Amino acid sequence: MPSNMELRRISATPSPATGVRTAPTVAKMIDTTTCIGCKACEVACQEWNDLFNADIALEAPSEFGSYQTMPDLTANFWNLIRFNEHVEKRPDGSEKFHWLMAKDQCMHCEDPGCLKACPAPGAIVQYTNGVVDFQQEHCIGCEYCVTGCPFDIPRLSKKTKKVYKCTLCTDRLAYGLEPACIKACPTGCLQFGTKEHLVQIANARVEQLKHNGYEKAAIYDPPGVGGTGVIYVLGLGDQPELYGLPNDPHVPWTVSVWKHALKPIGSLLMIGALLGTIIHYVRYGRNEAPGMRKVDREEV
Amino acid sequence: MSQEVMTQSQLATLAREKEDLAVDGLIVRHTAAVRLTHWLVAIFFFLSLFTGFVIFTPFFAGWASVFGGGPMVRTLHPWFALGFTIAILYLYRYWKMKMKKEAGDEEWKDNFGPYIRYESELQNVGKYNAGQKIYFWAVFWGAIAFLASGIVMWFPTVFPYFLRTISYWLHEITFVAFVIGIIYHIYMSTTAMPGTFRAMTRGTVTKDWAKWHHPRWYREVTGEKK
Ligand code: HEM
Ligand code: SF4
Ligand code: SF4
Known about the structure:
The structure holds two protein chains of two kinds. Chain A is an alpha+beta fold. Chain A has two domains: 249 residues, Alpha-Beta Plaits, CATH 3.30.70; 43 residues, Up-down Bundle (Single alpha-helices involved in coiled-coils or other helix-helix interfaces), CATH 1.20.5. Chain A has nine helices and eleven strands. The longest helix of chain A is centred in the last third of the chain and has 32 residues. Chain B is mostly helical. Chain B has a domain of 66 residues. In chain B, 65% of the residues lie in helices and 4% in strands. The longest helix of chain B has 32 residues. Chain B is elongated. Bound molecules: protoporphyrin IX containing FE and iron/sulfur cluster (2 copies). One iron/sulfur cluster (SF4) binds next to helix 3 of chain A. Protoporphyrin IX containing FE binds next to helix 2, helix 3, helix 6 and helix 7 of chain B.
């Protein structure tokens, strides 16, 4: 196994993850300002992951009033170019229509809410290179991860009752190849590399955009989830919602309280109750009706 | 046939249909129907509990294999739990009148300290004491909380996000309360109070037991003044 298959985190497992070797954190960069909406990345994703199956046709409505391939991600469609429609109001009162292209897929969060929520040991792992991956053979199909994910990414397959999402082509990375979507992109708006390197490139691109009149241009690498393995360059960086991206995503606090407060406190209370009966028995013994014969006592 | 010469097996037959009946040193406490319902509640509760535990904590993940693996646990748990809910509804049918508040309950509650120290000398305690009634109603409303939150967790994406998070909390809190409740329920009905468990197996208790734990009920059933 290549070193990037070692684990940084693993769901619902009390013992530590297996990663002892270090690997650089990898990332994808998506420059939304140079995406032309050609959907080559979608095709490459479907192709590499062998997702041309009959279910896709059932999931895709023939018409839903958009240029998008699908209205939403599905268990068989992990990478969707969203054609976000935006009308810019100009200072002179005129209006200009824009498509704010955004490639929607798993963000490979540094602090993944899906993994925190998952109750099945080993069903969600984070490799030492930062990629978050679902291990369907361990998944029980409870959809806790759907509630844990701040980006609404995992999708349950009706057929297998397991969840699926972008793997960041971990099976390609393991052999030194870049993800399929990156390879297919004709404009270079998708790039792959170490996170450190890509943040530099993204920042340089943001400077360039600012210089060219996009004063609000910004990089999207939300700190609320510890940064993401997918970073965006946004032309309208002060309004990520226009791209369908949450403004300040976090692992939902309700999930953290559930997993880190309710569970440990509840477990202690249950163990305490058990100990309570023992203490009570030792202190007070049995409450036996006077006059009970031995045989009455033993009869069940 | 006079009651004095009735054999154990004849008594058992009787106990299937009638309760609150004194015969030959014994009192029929629960009819067969009530006992059967209670056992169904217990069985479905423990099936729900053990499947739930697998999901609750990875320390019990190994138990999944008892039910055929994690995905099977996920599939089975809500169905076991529906069995539990239905059994509880039947129990509710039998017990809703009997578990009503009555005179003496307040006195019992004020006397809780002596009760758990086995120092209580209350005489005005009926077939069910106030603690048992509170436990019954807690279980009834707890079952409803389990059902409401469980349905949302069964089909989470059908429901709005807010409801989902509330349900995970509610299911968890109800679960902890139930486990604490069941620990004391079983402790008190077996180890702590000898002679109690047979009320759920044979359906009968001894007169001594009844006079000691439920004195007013004893007087009502036997007609004795004291
Ligand atoms: C009608 C009532 C109920 C329904 C519909 C229901 C349904 C569910 C569902 C759908 C889940 C999510 C995991 C899974 O799918 O297996 C779940 C989790 C769970 N259930 Fe239930 N359930 C019910 C009653 C109960 C009862 C009676 C118990 C315990 C005695 C219980 C204990 C648990 C526990 C401990 C979990 C795991 C919670 C966690 O991971 O934090 N449930 N239930
Ligand atoms: S659906 Fe699968 S991956 Fe998601 S939380 Fe449940 S077990 Fe984990
Ligand atoms: S985007 Fe969602 S599914 Fe992807 S790693 Fe983050 S929390 Fe998990």
